[in-house]
Amino acid sequence: MAFLSSAGRRAARVGAVAALTALAACDLPTPSSPVTSLPLLNGAAIAKGPEGYCVDPRRSRASAGFAVMASCTRLIGAPDAAGRDGFVTLQLGPPGSAAVAGAEEDLARLLTSPRGATLLSPQGAPEAIRVTQLERTTGLVAVQFEDIAAPMVAGLQGEEWRAFLDVGNRLATISVRGHAAQPLTSGEALNLMYRAIEALLEANRRR
Fold first, then answer.
1. Low-confidence ranges of the chain (pLDDT < 70)
2. Among 15, 34, 51, 118, which has the highest number of CB atoms less than 10 A from its own CB?
3. pLDDT tens digits, residue range 48-95?
4. Which domains does the chain have, with CATH numbers?
């Protein structure tokens, strides 16, 4: 079934996950000690970051399927924490929200349209979004964009990579931004995004 032939349902799923990500990232409390993985949605899924990254349980919203991941050294406040690392978020949708497999081309078109810019913007402001690159493969669509609006989390750079994929019967989004003080290059952020995807799929492969 084509993505746009069921645009109401599928676009709503993508938009709902994007909105949850934006809302959950607001007003984050002080992080606690980092952990390497975190059960989400009452154990229906597991959040796990790539090597060197930990999940911040206090910034995450496990019951809503939302997780924040950052370098373990940054989370524990180590002296070398100001390196070229990234800020990674994961949002899982409800059961039945899977929307990517078989609809990659249509989803890619949506994300590069004005409607897609509205979905990508945390503030719902398409004029603040400029899509700069697109990655598309079986079961995965990822978009790089520049967001000129103030970031939802202070201190992050404006450029972001965001991936859409299915994890079981749920839609998942993974977002990656660097820190404004030492921003990630496009290639570094893309590599981190794929590492985060691999870690997520491996953690949930047998669930």
1. 1-34, 78-83, 207
2. 34
3. 999 999 999 989 999 999 999 999 988 887 655 556 899 999 999 999
4. 4-26+49-203 (3.40.1000)
The distance from CA 73 to its chain's CA centroid, rounded to whole angstroms, is 21
Written as six digits, the tokens of 72 are: 């373990």
Q: Which two tokens stand for residue 130?
A: 């400029």
Entry field: residues in the chain: 207
CB of 112 closer than 8 Å to CB of 98: no
The amino acid sitting at 135 is: E
Q: Round to whole Å and give the CA distance between 138 and 180.
A: 32
Angle CA(71)–CA(75)–CA(81) in degrees, nearest 5? Answer: 65
pLDDT at site 187 = 96
3-state secondary structure string across 138-207: CCEEEEEEEECCCCCCCCECCEEEEEEEEECCEEEEEEEEEECCECCCHHHHHHHHHHHHHHHHHHCCCC
List all residues 6 or more positions away from 87 whose beta carbon is below 8 Å from its beta carbon: 68, 69, 70, 153, 156, 176, 177, 178, 179
